[in-house]
Amino acid sequence: MYEALIHHYSEKETGIYEEIFFTKRIKFQYPPSSINLPIFTRWLGVSNLDDFIWVMNLAMFFCVFLIAISCLLIVYSLNSLDGSVTVQNHLLVFLVVVLGTFTFNPIIRGHDLGQIQVLINLFACLAIFFWIGGKKFLCGVVISCAAIIKPQFFLFIIWGLIRKEREFLYGFLVCVVPIGVLSVVNFGIREHLDYIGVLSYIGQHGEVFWANQSVNGFLNRLIENGSSLRWSGSSFADFDSIVYLGTTISSAVIILAAVLYRPGWTVNGLGQATERRIESVLDLSTAQMAFTLASPVAWVHHYAVAWPILVVCFVLLLRNFEAIPKWMRYVSVLGLSFSYLMISNYLTPLAPFASSPFNVLQSFVFFGGAVLFVVLIILRRSPEFCGFYGRRTS
Predict the structure, then answer these.
(1) For an engineered disulfide with 376, which of 40, 129, 169, 286 has Cβ 3.0 to 4.6 Å away?
(2) Distance (Å, rounded) from C-alpha 172 to C-alpha 169?
(3) Exposed, middle or buried by CB within 10 Å (0-12, 13-18, 19+), for 322?
(4) Residue 347 to residue 104: CA distance in whole angstroms
């Protein structure tokens, strides 16, 4: 990111992405709007790379703490929706959530790598917290802040339009429009068009390295399209038509499932406001997971967005365990436990399988995310899980 800023100020004739991504082969995969961040820090007096790295590392360190605080707020916000449910042991809740945050591998991995993804993970937590509290405008604002850095979050515009969530969309636009205009003023239309070429190139190739926990990574490793144990800082996987087709179809299916699916009992207007709000929280969570899973390159630290979703699901499961059907108890307990174990851990013993047909096991984080995605859809079908104890219609 800072390299892109230096190139911008150098006033070279070549574009940022033409020079940085395609010529120098530096994997700068963020949109032009993201470069406004180092411009802002430069305005604050951070004028060299070492100082910028120090400031960003410090900021990401605090972001991890804020993620833990946000998850605690999520727990208590869910509790406040139903006065009949009380938190019996505040200290236990505090310890579980905080320790869970600081032992959740994708969160810590993102911090160790110095990744701005930690900030996106914080935005994802805040989005769920604001949505639970009915502050959909603020949810839209933080989601748009994530989209400025991670463009697949722009799919939330489609999600919001289909659900007619005007307040959410207003919040999204209030943030993204002025920053988008500022980005065009700073970098011009050319850089934004060049960035489309970057996204197209990444989508056609992807990464074979094991940490790419996506369908693309799974397929690249399955056909052994390079070494899955060595990461290259200057090259992507070779183009393969089967991998490209599989990535494209799976991404379309996942996104359509998340954007179009609505449980019958909510469409029919059943349930009270609280129950519909809980289902909409799970709906938002489903979309967050889908837009991560559907990406051609989804690194392990991208799956940190799953942590607040797991927190929500486990709280609701404890709250409504006796009310939901027995089969759903098994599905939710096994599915959520499997997802947590796969996503939160770093399974180094799987490395020996890299050059064998069992290299599919290297996609353990993706499997955990995929199971969580399916479990979310299943749980949303149950009004009992969302606290509505009427007759099911779907």
Answers:
(1) 286
(2) 5
(3) exposed
(4) 13
Provide the 3-class DSSP secondary structure of residue 212: strand
Q: Are 192 and 184 contacting, i.e. CB atoms less than 8 angstroms apart?
A: yes
Q: What is the sign of the dihedral through the CA atoms of 362, 101, 329 and 293?
A: negative
Asked if 312 contacts 340 with a C-beta cutoff of 8 angstroms, the reply is: no
pLDDT digits (tens, 9 = 90+) for 64-112: 999 999 999 999 888 777 654 455 667 788 888 999 999 999 999 998 8
Helix (H) or strand (E) holding 333: helix 326-344
Q: How far apart are CA 234 and CA 207, in angstroms?
A: 11
**Burial tier of 197 (Cβ tally within 10 Å: 0-12, 13-18, 19+):** middle
* The residue type at 267: V
CA–CA distance, 48 with 369 (Å, rounded to integer): 38
Task: Dihedral sign for Cα 56, 146, 80, 388, please.
Answer: negative
Does position 306 have pLDDT exceeding 70, yes or no?
Answer: yes
Report the Cα 176 to chain-centroid distance in Å. Answer: 18
Residue 113 and residue 269: Cα distance in Å, rounded? 46
Q: What is the C-alpha separation between 91 and 96, in angstroms, rounded?
A: 9
**Mean of per-residue pLDDT scores for the chain:** 87
Q: Which two three-digit tokens encode residue 380? A: 């949303």
Q: Tell me the pLDDT tens digit for each residue of 188-197.
A: 898 899 999 9
Q: Which residues of 236-250 are buried (b: 16+ CB within 10 A; e: fewer)?
A: bbeebeebbebbeeb
Q: Is the dihedral of CA 317, 319, 324, 326 positive or negative?
A: positive
Cα-atom radius of gyration of the chain, to the nearest Å?
Answer: 21
DSSP annotation of 237 reads P
Confidence band, pLDDT 50/70/90 cuts, at residue 9: low
Higher-confidence residue of 3 and 311: namely 311
Contact criterion met (CB below 8 Å) for 29 and 150: no
The dihedral formed by the CA atoms of 89, 94, 100 and 102, expressed in degrees to the nearest 10: -160
Q: Token pair of 259, please?
A: 């954007």
